[in-house]
């Protein structure tokens, strides 16, 4: 991967035709087969899931998956499902730029918050962006 730092970073929504290109980046976080990734992304897109790409020149170096959610408890908010920056591009500000895109998108939709689940090793990144740990525990039952 050539991460030419002199090229401007461009953040934009990906068309479904570009999703296969996003797989190489997403697969650094999600251990899925490409066909499974594409099926899941398509299924989630019916509920508003979108993939956003960060490009340096023609090279896709970061991917953000997000979806609008409306609940009684939280109202309208944007949920970030996936934030992945290619290993070679980490530390370049790409993750910050993708999160800025998500926050601006949530504000444009008049949503009250951006919510996400963070891996323990990513908590500091989000805290630097003024995210706080939510006090309500997440519960799950495997069926």
From TrEMBL:
Task: Spell out the molecular function terms from Gene Ontology.
Answer: acyltransferase activity, transferring groups other than amino-acyl groups
Instruction: Quote the InterPro entries the UniProt record gives.
Output: Acyl_CoA_acyltransferase (IPR016181), Bact_Acetyltransf (IPR050832), GNAT_dom (IPR000182)
Pfam families assigned: Acetyltransf_10
- Any idea which UniProt keywords this protein has? Acyltransferase, Transferase
Q: Which stretches make up the N-acetyltransferase domain?
A: 9-143
**Mind telling me which PANTHER family this protein's record contains?**
AMINOALKYLPHOSPHONATE N-ACETYLTRANSFERASE-RELATED, AMINOALKYLPHOSPHONATE N-ACETYLTRANSFERASE-RELATED-RELATED
Question: What protein name applies here?
Answer: GNAT family N-acetyltransferase
Question: What organism, scientifically named, is this protein from?
Answer: Diaphorobacter ruginosibacter
């Amino acid at each position: 991967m050539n991460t030419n730092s002199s090229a401007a970073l461009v953040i934009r929504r990906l068309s479904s035709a570009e999703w296969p290109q996003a797989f190489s980046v997403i697969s650094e976080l999600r251990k899925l087969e490409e066909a499974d990734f594409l099926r899941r992304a398509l299924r989630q897109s019916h509920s508003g899931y979108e993939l956003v790409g960060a490009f340096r020149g023609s090279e896709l170096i970061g991917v953000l998956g997000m979806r609008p959610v409306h609940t009684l408890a939280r109202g309208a908010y944007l949920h970030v499902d996936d934030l992945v920056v290619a290993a070679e591009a980490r530390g370049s500000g790409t993750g910050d730029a993708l999160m800025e895109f998500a926050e601006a998108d949530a504000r444009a939709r008049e949503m009250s918050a951006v919510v996400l689940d963070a891996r323990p090793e990513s908590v500091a990144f989000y805290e630097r962006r003024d995210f706080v740990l939510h006090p309500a525990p997440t519960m799950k039952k495997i069926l």
